[in-house]
Amino acid sequence: MSAMEGEMNFDTNGEAIRHINLRILPFLMLLYLVAYIDRSNISVAALGMNEELGLTSRMYGLAAGIFFATYIVFEIPSNMLLARFGARRWIARIMISWGIIAAGMAFISSAYQLYGMRLLLGAAEAGFTPGIIFYLAKWYPSRDRANAMSFFYIGAALASVIGLPLSGLLLNAHGILGLSGWRWVFLIEGIPAIVLGFVVLKFLPDRPRDATWLSVEQQDGLERTIAAEEEKTPVSHHAGWSAAFSNARVWMLAFFWLLQAFGTIGITLFMPLIVKNLSGGGNLAVSLLSAVPFLAACIFMFFNGRHSDRTGERAFHLGLPLTLAGICLLGATYAGDPHLAYLLLVLSVALNWAVIPIFWAVTTEFVSGIAAAVSIALINALANVAGLALPPVIGWIKDSTGSYDIALTLVAAALIAGGLLGIAIVRTGAPALQLSKQQGIQDDIRT
Predict the structure, then answer these.
(1) d(CA 341, CA 2)
(2) Running DSSP on this structure, what letter comes out for residue 175?
(3) Which of 220-224, 267-271, 289-293 has the lowest average pLDDT?
(4) Which residue, among 71, 222, 214, has the nearest Cα to 137 in the 3D structure?
């Protein structure tokens, strides 16, 4: 392909990306917002549920973490089935099944029923996040991927910004129709997933070639660009699914994501309880204060992902924010002053989330095809070991010591170590994991 043709294809891709940003990305953000609310609203429900069901901090931690047991088990099979049956049908299945289970949690009456429903919710939702990441890699060339990932994960952060205050308000519906407020939290917030699942089934295209709102030139341009990039990934598009398990760098990426998850999972599931411990406020005030760190996370993710795509630099955009997140969390833990502790907690959460779009851009620049589907699921599944093990440990530490200080120190150490590992992974993997500048982009669209 000539330089002039390359420029024309580059411009066509730019137009296509703008259409995708308007048509696909906001809808995926909405899906993730709803998914994350259903996964994490137990943190607000706990403000009333724990007392009614007689749950200790350790029992609540087990309920919060047991979700990840089935999530981990079914994540890789789910992503393989998504690759086989297509995103539209499989994501619709995930959403409808998890919505039914999430709403059904309103009717539990014991700790063991809570454990069982959380296990079912994990099985139903397994594969959603890695499935969407794999799906986005089929729509966005590498030069636009971190920015796209940042917007997708903004949906998760907004779930806390919107979901925490909403859940706090629903707690105040206590007594309506004889239901406790925490039961209304589960019931009302489970319904949107069911509705959106049917919307996905009708409207979500599987790949650019299926998008009727793209021109033929735009469809072809995107498919050629992404296919060319997939051919050049270190773990190629033609590699089998087993390549994900035999590649050392995939396991390094998985270990990084595990360390990062200490913050996103460990802190998120305990955020309202930690904030209540700092502020001593009422349920609605605690919900509002708990939402602020995730609003900051939206801003940090957007600018970190955008700047990384523009500069082509990945290593320090990945590792430095996570290291600073750990340092801020240490400061928050031992600050003494509750106002300073809260400010440092906000910064820690925002910096932690800022690395997410960079990480998935790096990962999808390294693997493609069925190996990518399995690698993404494998990485996400291993990270969710933190979700399985960490909440019960945090709850046990709180019950044993009367504070979260030791638990948060462990989380901070994991974040600092993860940040240093992230820098090493990308820099030692150059140029394979480094994003090309415009000349590299034009090379990728040669046929």
Answers:
(1) 58
(2) T
(3) 267-271
(4) 222
- Nearest residue to 66 (alpha-carbon basis) of 47, 39, 45, 90: 39
Q: How many residues does the chain have?
A: 447
Which helix (H) or strand (E) segment holds residue 145: the answer is helix 142-171
Phi first, then psi, for residue 277 (nearest 5°) are -65, -35
The rounded distance, in Å, linking the Cα atoms of 174 and 171 is 6
Q: CB under 8 Å to 326, separation ≥6 — which residues?
A: 263, 348, 411, 412, 413, 414, 415, 416, 417, 418, 419
Residue 26: partners with Cβ closer than 8 Å, 6 or more residues away? none
pLDDT tens per residue, range 64-117: 888 888 988 898 888 889 888 888 999 999 999 999 999 999 999 999 999 999
Tell me the per-residue pLDDT of 234-290, one tens digit each, with 9 for 90 and over. 554 444 556 656 677 888 888 999 999 888 877 776 777 788 878 777 777 887 888
- Residue whose C-alpha is closest to residue 132's, from 202, 231, 28: 28
Report the distance separating Cα 31 and Cα 28, nearest Å: 5
Looking up tokens 């998914």 gives: 35
Say which DSSP state 215 is in. -
Partners of 235 in the β-ladder: 367
d(CA 34, CA 277): 27
Give CA torsion, residues 82, 83, 84, 89, to 10 deg: 40
Handedness of CA 113, 270, 260, 79 (dihedral sign): positive
* DSSP assignment string, 41-106: THHHHHHHHHHHHT--HHHHHHHHHHHHHHHHHHHHHHHHHHHHH-HHHHHHHHHHHHHHHHHHGG
Extract the tokens encoding 363.
């990962």
